[in-house]
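User: If only I could read backbone structure tokens as easily as an amino acid sequence. Underneath my words sits a plain record pairing an amino acid chain with its backbone structure tokens. This is the protein in question:
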Amino acid sequence: MKVILLSDVKKVGKKDDVVEVSDGYARNFLIKRKLAVAYTKGSSKILDEQLAIKKEHEAQLKKEAEALKKKLETMKLEFSLSAGKEGQVFGSISTKQIHQALQEKGIEVDKRKIKLDVPVSSLGTTNVEVDLYKGQVIGTIHVHVSQKG
């Protein structure tokens, strides 16, 4: 029996996939638990419409991410840290601080999307990458660290 999956099912398929499963499995497990619906002309038409809407929404999100990327690349975040005589820095700039600085400028980015393997702990400018859209749109933030006092 052909069914359209309404959610991800382990070892069967992902949401919106059309899969062939045994009649008993489809009726007694997938359809009964609302994990799938039977594949018919009507259900396939609804699926196509939903996929078109989803694709359009994804395109809009990507477009917004591209605009945010351009905005981030013109921006420079300024931080200051205490430093010793030989330029040795005391402290570091973490993703949390970068996230807060972006929020102060009115830009909302998920803190977990800021790609910073180790905190910024050197004077000067460092480029920090931000995943704005599913790894397809990567923005760059210029983080400038200067010496306090």
